[in-house]
Amino acid sequence: MLQKLQQLQSTVLEHLPSISTEDALVEYKNSILGKTGELTLILKWLKDLSPEERSTVGKAANDIRDILTEAFDAEKNRIKNEVIAARLQSEWEDMTVPLAQKSGSLHPMTQVRLDVEDTFTRMGFDIYESMEVTTEYLNFDAVNVPKTHPARDMQDTFWLEGDGNVLATQTSCMQNLIMRAKDTPIRAIIPGRVFRNEDVDATHDNTFYQVEWIVVDKWIGISHLKFTITTMLSDIFGKEVTIRMRPGYFPFVEPGVEVDFSCPFCDGDGCRICKGSGWIEFMGAGLIHPHVIREGGLDPEVYSGFAFGFGLNRLVMIRYGIPDMRYFMSPDVRFLRQF
Ligand code: DAH
Questions:
Q1: If you take atom 12 of ligand 1, which residue's CA is the nearest one?
Q2: Sequence-separated (6 or more) residues with CB below 8 Å from residue 210
Q3: 127 and 23 share a domain?
Q4: 205 ligand 1 Cβ < 6 A
Q5: Is residue 56 one of the residues assigned to a domain?
Q6: Which residue owns the Cα nearest ligand 1 atom 6?
Q7: In CATH, what number is assigned to the domain containing residue 302?
Q8: Rounded to the nearest whole angstrom, what is the distance from the C-alpha of residue 319 to the centroid of ligand 1?
Q9: What number does the ligand 1 atom closest to the CA of 286 have?
Q10: Domain range holding 25?
Q11: 130 has pLDDT over 90
């Protein structure tokens, strides 16, 4: 019996260090010291022994129970410490390291505007910021928009209180100011925010961005216009883009043209972006109307020029495949983080 007890003690003490969880330890402890545990069963047999044997074996059994109880407690502490050490290891953080900086990024609209500005500065253009509040005169009269033109109507223009003040509906409102303020040759690009009283949907917003550009000098013709547009678009899309012109009416130009460019995504074969036509309708342009040149303080017999204007929102949508214009003004960072 004594031998059996001794054996039990050494088996248990040998096995204990291999236990790694508290649950397993509790289970093992029950199987030895619990109500039906091995040691408990041995102790039950004590009553069958002679009184002498009972006292030696009983004493040994009690000693072993104490030793094992102590060993189980010690293992419990070991396991607890191991768990804490593992957590410290895995959750450890060096609080002295500076937090990783999540840097913001430029709005896609700003990125494309900067690209456009870059192309034009390389071609010798000056950059002017457009006005957001302007006058009826600059927005309409000075660029030859007739008094009866529907664009002046309440539906399109936000009229402000006061003497003929409006929110700019087009960056063309800067043409007159620039012609008056600058000496020829004039080469200017004018990005700006414009406003129209429109119903908002996926392709229209009441607030959007345009880029205008004007060139005024002697002997300016349609070929300069063509070169400038082609250069800008090829730069923006990083590949050669061709353009085509269709007659179009804008009061500030004569002749006026609508400019389409070859779809840079399918190279003219037809795809989803160009709706199968191979061309993307893009902007209005033309040779500056003599009335506008004269109103700008220059002699149209001597000077000519070209002007064009496009919606920056649309260019950005095409470049990045953005399906809905309303994303631009929404404060959703999931949209912004993509750029
Ligand atoms: N201002 C025109 C618009 O908002 C765009 C435009 C067309 C500008 C022709 C021009 C131009 O300079 O020549 O729709």
A1: 308
A2: 130, 170, 171, 191, 192, 194, 309, 310, 311, 312
A3: no
A4: no
A5: yes
A6: 309
A7: 3.30.930.10
A8: 21
A9: 13
A10: 2-91
A11: yes
84 with 225, same domain: the answer is no
Q: Where are the beta strands (DSSP E) in 183-311?
A: 186-195, 207-217, 243-247, 253-262, 279-288, 304-311
Question: Considering the domain boundaries, does residue 96 fall inside one?
Answer: no
Candidate from 149, 156, 170 with most ligand 1 atoms within 8 A of CB, to mutate: 170
| Shared domain check, 320 and 184 | yes
Checking if the pLDDT of 205 tops 80, the result is yes
Q: How far is 308 from 310, CA to CA, in rounded Å? A: 7
pLDDT score recorded for residue 154: 67
Per-residue pLDDT reduced to its tens digit, 258-267:
999 999 989 8
Q: Is 305 domain-assigned?
A: yes
Nearest residue by C-alpha to atom 3 in ligand 1: 170
Chain mean pLDDT for the chain: 91
At residue 276, φ and ψ (nearest 5 deg) are 80, -5
Judge if 137 and 259 occupy the same domain: yes
Q: How far apart are CA 190 and CA 181, in angstroms?
A: 14
For the chain, the domain total comes to 2
Q: Is the CB of 125 under 6 A from ligand 1?
A: no
Tell how far the Cα of 208 is from the centroid of ligand 1, in angstroms.
14
* Residue 287 CA to ligand 1 centre (angstroms): 11
